[in-house]
C-alpha cells in the first residue's frame, strides 16, 4: 500500500519504518526541515533501540522516504496517518493546533479518495471535528479514522510487531477493512484488531494511560506510607503482586512518572471532564500525587544532609524519563536537578542517551559526564533517577574510591539493597528503609 505519515517523531518514525518493513511504500513527512535533512542523510534524530538499522534497510530498498513537501507526498497515498504532537495546552487540555493544521493542509491537497488516520492522542470528538473541518475545504471523498498508538518508547519496534491489541475507530466498514489490510501481517489470536466508534477509540487511549498513571501514583503513595511506618515496600509488593487480580506490572514505586504522555494525557482527561461538567476527581489526585512524588527524592537528599546541600557535589545518574530512551520531557530528574541547584549544590549528571537534551536546557549550570563513574568524582552523594541497566549493578569498590561520602539515593529502587549496604554505603530508596 502507499502510505503517508505526517509527523516524523517517536510515533511517526517508528510506525512509518515498521510499515515500510512490512512491504508498504511509505513516505514520512515533517515540517521540521532539519529533521528531514538528518533522516535523508541516514541519521536518526531519536534514540530507539533497533530503529537505525531498520531505517537504513528500508531507505536503501526505497520503501521508506522522507520529505517536508506534504502536498506532493500525499498525492497518491491511500492511507495518511497523522502522528503530530498534541502537547498540553494552556488550559490543561491537549493543544490540537498541529492536528488542525495538518488536516487543513491534507484537505487542500487531496487529489483522490483517501483514509486519514489520526494516530496522535486526541480528545474525544477530534475525529468528528476534523472530518467537519476537512469537508468544508475539499469535495474529494475521504474518511477519518482513529487509531490510537500504544507503543512504549524504548520497546517501540517490538510493540509495533507484537501489539497487545490494535484499536481502530471508524464509521464505515470499508474504512475498518482498509485498516485491517494495513495491520493484517501483525495480527494474531493474542493480538486482536478491535474496531469501534472513533469516539470510543479516542477515549480508549486516555483510559489506558490514565489507569497506568493511577497504578504508579497508587504504589508511590503506598511506598511513602511504608516509609512512615517502617514497612518495606518490596515485601508489600510481593504480598500483593502474587494475587492474580493485582499482578506486578506498573506497581513499582519510584521518583514519579514523566515523559511526553502520562502527565499530559492525565491532564487532558481532567480537562475533557471539565468541558462536559463532569467530575474527574481520581485523575486530579493521580496528577497531584505524581507532582509531590517528584519531590520525594530531593527531600530525602536534603534531610540526609541536615537540610542543606549548599556547596555539596551531588551526582545524578539518569536523566531520561525512563530507560532506553533519550526523552527528557517531564522527567523527574529535571525536578531533582532544579531543586538541587536552587539549594546551592554542585550537580554532576550522567545518562547514556539524554545528556545533550539536558545540556540544551541547563547549559553550563551542570557538569556533564559521559562516564557515570566520572560523575562520582569527589561526590557527596549519588541519586539514581532512571533505572538504566548499567546503573543496576555498579562497581561499589570503584564508587567508594571516587566518592567523598558513601551514600546512594535510589529513586527507582533498582539496586540490590543488601549488596549496597554490605558494600559500606548508606542507602535510601523509595519506601524501602525508614530514612534516619
Ligand atoms: P514528537 O514530538 O516526537 O513528534 C511529532 C512530530 O510532528 C515532530 O517531528 C514535529 O515536527 C511534527 N509536526 C508537528 N506539526 C507538524 C505539521 N504541521 N506538519 C508536519 N509535521 C509536524 O511526538 P511523538 O512523541 O511522536 O507523539 C506524537 C503523538 O503520539 C502525540 O499525540 C502523543 O501523545 C502520541 N503518542 C506518543 C507516544 C510516545 O511514546 N512518544 C506513545 C503513544 C502515543
UniProtKB/TrEMBL annotation:
UniProt keyword list: NAD, Oxidoreductase
Record-listed E.C. numbers: 1.1.1.22
UDP-glucose/GDP-mannose dehydrogenase C-terminal domain mapped to chain residues: 315-417
Sample GO molecular function, one term: oxidoreductase activity
Keyword Metal-binding included in the entry's annotation: no
Catalytic activity annotation: UDP-alpha-D-glucose + 2 NAD(+) + H2O = UDP-alpha-D-glucuronate + 2 NADH + 3 H(+)
Alphabetical list of Pfam families matching this protein: UDPG_MGDP_dh (PF00984), UDPG_MGDP_dh_C (PF03720), UDPG_MGDP_dh_N (PF03721)
Oxidoreductase in keyword set: yes
Family recorded in the similarity comment: Belongs to the UDP-glucose/GDP-mannose dehydrogenase family.
Protein name per Swiss-Prot or TrEMBL: UDP-glucose 6-dehydrogenase
Species per Swiss-Prot/TrEMBL record: Paludisphaera mucosa
